[in-house]
Each structure stands twice: as structure tokens, then as C-alpha cells.
Write a structure and sequence with these properties.
- With about 300 residues, the protein is of the alpha/beta class.
- It has three domains: about 140 residues, Rossmann fold, CATH 3.40.50.300; about 35 residues, no CATH class; about 100 residues.
- The protein is built from 15 helices and nine strands.
- The protein has a five-stranded parallel beta sheet. A two-stranded antiparallel ribbon has the order 3-4. It has a two-stranded antiparallel sheet with strand order 6-7.
- The longest helix is centred in the last third of the chain and has 16 residues.
- The two termini are about 35 Å apart.
């Protein structure tokens, strides 16, 4: 287990150590979240690297990563805890068969921790020799407001109340990362309990740095052309602009095909790696695609991305 960072520069170095290319603003809010023991709420488009931050922190700090993947209909039994009803019924029948008549004692026994199934949020409150875990609540915007309301107790006091057992509190607060793709607005009551940061698409220089780390086998010229092409593409009216994850995948795919420079044929054949909607792909077919490629190459020829 590594020591927690004591400065913004050290936080930036830790993220870099985990192959995450962050700007200083992001490193600052990550440092403050850890230092203040406050959850960090990361909002931004899909594929810009929000989830990766939690994974990197878990890796470089040597902490367990506990991930709660959110979805519509997520409830307490799936996110926090539920009782193992089958084992409880078996225990009750065995007690009755053994002649146990003290109902209060039976109830006390079957509602003990041995019959408790711990889900991610409850697991995150448990102590560990590795230190407090990193809790990732991923894509919170996919859940409903009722689940948000339940999260308030956990985010405020790092505790969960189980009626049959009482209140379970964390000995050490977990490092909490909450992500949202902003498919809907998350309630202010939850945001107030967190530090907030908008994770935007990177500029050309940072995206180039990311590709050098994440797709190191791609030829330098190809990497520069990919960045220039994607940066220009994000200015187009598309249903879904490509995220950093798609840029990395595209660079890896073109490298596998031994491409050293963008050409219309190869780009057209691999657009499904970069774009995920057919309408967006159709918008770029033909002369418009060649124009984008020419512009990308021209921009590098006049001002190379360093």
C-alpha cells in the first residue's frame, strides 16, 4: 500500500505513474478529494477517462477497487446488502427440529452478519489491512432519484443503517469516485456532498501525449494525423463525438493494420472503431471524409503537434 499524496504535484506524479495523462486542474481536485475525505463527482461525456481515474488510483495506491456499476432499477439489495433468505430458512427449520423454542434467540441468530450478503457499498465500509478501498460509483445518472437519496447517508457519514443490525460505520473513509455521463441531472443534494470536476475532451497536445502512452506502437506521423483528424471531427455536428477511449482504440486498430498515414480507404473501413452511430459514419463518407484527412495532414505539415 502506497502513501497518500501530500501535494498536487505528487498527485499528478501518481496519476502519471499509472499511465493517466491528467492536467493540473484534475490533479488538484483529486488531491483535495483525498485530503479532505470528500467524494469526487466527475461529470463529462462518455469515453473521456472518468472511470479510469478510479482504476488508476486503486493501482498506484495499492488499494482495493470496489465498483458499483449503476443501471436503471438499481436498488438497495443489489447495491448495499440483502439477507440470504434460503440459508435463514434452513437455519430456522434446523433450530425448530432441534427443539429450539426461543423465537427471539432464533431471530437474533438468523439476522446476524453470517447471513448478510454484502454488496459493493457495504463492502466499501469494511476495514482492511490494505487501507480504505477506492469506491467507484460508475454512471450514477443511469439510476433514479430514489437511489440517489439513499446514497446521501453513505456519502455524508460513510455509514449504512441496517434495521436488523443497526448502523455500520467505516473506520476509515473510502476514496470515492462518482461518475456521470450527464444523461440526466443529478440532484443538488448529492452534488453538495462531493467535490466536482468536469472532465472535458483533451486538447491536441494532451491527446497526443495520451496516445504516446496508451498506443506506443503507433508510428509518430500516424499518431499526429489521428489526433488532428479527431480534433477536427469533434467540431462536426455528430450525434456522438468520439471520446479518448475511441481515439486510443482507433490508433491501435490502424497500427494492427500496418497503417503509417491516413488514407480515405483505410479510414472509411475503420470508422466503426471511432464512431458508434451509423448516421455519423454516413455523414463522413465520400468527399467530406477526404477533406477531413487532407486538413489533418495539412495542419501537421504547417504546425506539427509537439
Amino acid at each position: 500500500m502506497s502513501q497518500l499524496p501530500v501535494s498536487i504535484d505528487e498527485t499528478l506524479a501518481l496519476l502519471t505513474q499509472g499511465d493517466y495523462v491528467a492536467d493540473r486542474a484534475l490533479a488538484t481536485v483529486v488531491f483535495l478529494s483525498i485530503k479532505m475525505g470528500r467524494p469526487l463527482f466527475l461529470e463529462g461525456e462518455a469515453g473521456v477517462g472518468k472511470t479510469e481515474i478510479a482504476k488508476v488510483l486503486s493501482k498506484v495506491l495499492g488499494r482495493k477497487l470496489i465498483r458499483l456499476q449503476c443501471y436503471e432499477g438499481l436498488d438497495v439489495s443489489s447495491a448495499v446488502y440483502e439477507w440470504d433468505y434460503a440459508r435463514q430458512m434452513m437455519a430456522i427449520r434446523l433450530a425448530e427440529a432441534a427443539g429450539e423454542s426461543d423465537r427471539a434467540r432464533i431471530e437474533h441468530d438468523v439476522f446476524s452478519e453470517r447471513y448478510l450478503i454484502k454488496r459493493p457499498l457495504l463492502q466499501a465500509l469494511e476495514s482492511s489491512t490494505e487501507g480504505a478501498p477506492v469506491l467507484l460509483v460508475d454512471e450514477l445518472d443511469r439510476t433514479d432519484e430514489a437511489f440517489e437519496a439513499f446514497l446521501l447517508e453513505i456519502l455524508s457519514d460513510f455509514q449504512v443503517t441496517i434495521p436488523e443490525l443497526g448502523t455500520i460505520r467505516a473506520e476509515a473513509a473510502p476514496i470515492v469516485i462518482i461518475t456521470s455521463n450527464r444523461t440526466r441531472e443529478v440532484h443538488d443534494a448529492l452534488k453538495r456532498r462531493c467535490l466536482y470536476h468536469w472532465v472535458d475532451y483533451p486538447d491536441a497536445q494532451r491527446e497526443l501525449d495520451i496516445l504516446r502512452v496508451k498506443a506506443p506502437n503507433a508510428p509518430q506521423r500516424l499518431t499526429e494525423e489521428i489526433v488532428a483528424f479527431v480534433q477536427s471531427l469533434r467540431n462536426r455536428d455528430l450525434f456522438k463525438q468520439p471520446g479518448v477511449a475511441e481515439t486510443i482504440d482507433w490508433a491501435s486498430a490502424l497500427t494492427e493494420l500496418d497503417v503509417v498515414s491516413l488514407d480515405a480507404s483505410q479510414v472509411s473501413d475503420t470508422l466503426g472503431v471511432l464512431l458508434k452511430y451509423q448516421d455519423d459514419i454516413q455523414k463522413l463518407q465520400g468527399g467530406d471524409l477526404q477533406k477531413l484527412i487532407d486538413e489533418a495532414k495539412a495542419s501537421i505539415g504547417t504546425a506539427r503537434v509537439d
